[in-house]
Amino acid sequence: MRVLIAGLGEKKEFGLRSLRDAGHFVGVIDLAHRIPVSLVDWWRAGDRFSVEAMLAAARSADFEWDAVLCWEELSTDLAREVAAQLGVPATRMPAGHFRDKGVMHGRLRELGLPTPQLGVARDLAECERLIGGRYPAVVKPTDYGGSGGVKIVRGPDDLPEAFAFALDAARTGRVAVDRYVSGTEYSVEAVTWAPGKTEVVSVTEKHLSRPPYFAEVGHVSPAVLPDEVREQLEYETVRVLEGLGMEAGVSHAEFRLTPDGPVLMEVAGRPAGDQIPRLVALATGWNLYLAELGAVVGSPVSPEAPSVERAAIRFFNGDGVTPFRHPVTLDDAIAAPFAEVLHELCYFEPEGAVTDAPRGIGGRNGHAVLAGSREQVAEALHLLDNGAPVYQGDD
To answer: What is the band of 156 on the pLDDT scale with cuts at 50, 70, 90?
Structure first.
C-alpha cells in the first residue's frame, strides 16, 4: 500500500519504520530538514500549512496514493482535505473538533461532559472577564499542541505575560481560558475502527515540569492504576470520542484525575508525540501507527505480544542556571540497572551547557528510553531523577 504522510512532525522514526516493516511504501511531505530520507521511499519538501502546496507535492508522484495520514498536530485538518481532493481514505472526524480547543470544549459543554474551559478570548480584557477573579487559571492557544504556549496564572499580575505567551503561539489569534484543575495527569491512547467502535489500548502516566509551564518531561506505559480508575479513564475517553464525532483513526486524550473523576484537558485525533507510540508498542504490543492505517482503510489489526512489562522515556531539561551533566555515562550504561533497560540514549547538548527550562516541547537536552520489568524501569527512573519525586500535575 502507498501511504502518504502529509505532515510528519518531529521524531517520528518509529512510525516510519513501522509502516515500512509492514511492507508499505511510505511517502512524506514536510519541511526538508524534518524528513529522515533514509527511512522513506518518496518525499517532497512542502508547506504543511497549505492544502494547495501539499496537493501539488502529492500529485507530483508518478503513481496514485492509497491512503493519507498526518502525524503533525498543526496539519491534521489540512491533510484530510488533501486526502479528500485526492479521493483516497484518511482519518475521519469533524473538522476542528480535535484541533481547535475552543470548538472541542464548546462541543463537550453542549453534551454536558466535564470540561475546565471557561471560554475563548481574543484580547486581554476578554481573558480577564472570563477568569472573573477566579485564580489560579490556565491560558493556552486554541490551535497549538505539545503544551506549547500553556501557562498557569496565579493572579491578575501574571495574566498579561501569560496571555501574550499563549497568543504568540496561537495561529488564529484565539486563546483558551481554563479553570485550573488539580490532579495527576494521564493520557489515554485509543483506536476507533468505525463510528461507535472504539478500543482503548493504553493508559500512560505523564510527568510534567513544575508550573507555570507544564512542559512534558517524561511518560511511562502502562500507568500503574487501580482497575476502577483505569476503567473510569477508558469510559470517559470513549464518551469524549463519541461526543466529538470520531469515526476512524487513533486518538491521544489527556486527563487530570480529580477527586470528582477524570477531567479532559484535550484530545488529539492522531498518534501521540514524544515517542509514546514506541513505549506503548513495547509494553502492550499495540502499534498505534499500524492501527491508525488499519482504521483508515477498514482493515483492523491486533496487538502482538508485548516485549516488556513497562516502558518509559525521560527528557533531560535545563533550568537556566545549572550546567548540564549527562545523567548516564559510558560506564553507567553498561552497569545495572541501565544495562538491562536502556534502549536509547541521546544527548543534544554537551556537558556544562546551560539551557533554559522548557516552555513546551522544545528546549530539551536529550532523552533516555527505558524498557524492562516494572522494578527495573522504576529503579532506572529513580537514578535518572536523582531520587527526587516526579511531578504529575497534583500541585
So the answer is: very high
Q: What mean pLDDT do residues 151-167 have?
A: 92
Cβ of 306: how many Cβ atoms within 10 Å?
Answer: 17
Task: Using DSSP bridges, classify how beta strands 117-121 and 137-141 pair: parallel, antiparallel or unpaired.
Answer: unpaired
* Average pLDDT value for residue range 187-192: 98
Cα–Cα nearest to 15, from 58, 65, 54, 71: 71
- Three-state secondary structure call for residue 157: helix
Sign of dihedral through CA atoms 375, 381, 387, 393?
negative
Grid cell locating 374: 516494572
195: which 3 cell numbers?
Answer: 463510528
**What pLDDT, in 10s, does the model give residues 237-292?**
999 999 999 999 999 999 999 988 899 999 999 999 999 999 999 999 999 999 99
Q: How confident is the model at residue 145 (pLDDT cuts 50, 70, 90)?
A: low
Q: In whole angstroms, how large is the CA radius of gyration of the chain?
A: 21
Q: How many angstroms separate the CA atoms of 236 and 255, rounded?
A: 9
b/e code 53-86 from CB counts within 10 Å (16+ = b): bbbebbeeeeeebbbbbbbbbbbbbbbbbbbeeb
Mean pLDDT of the chain: 93
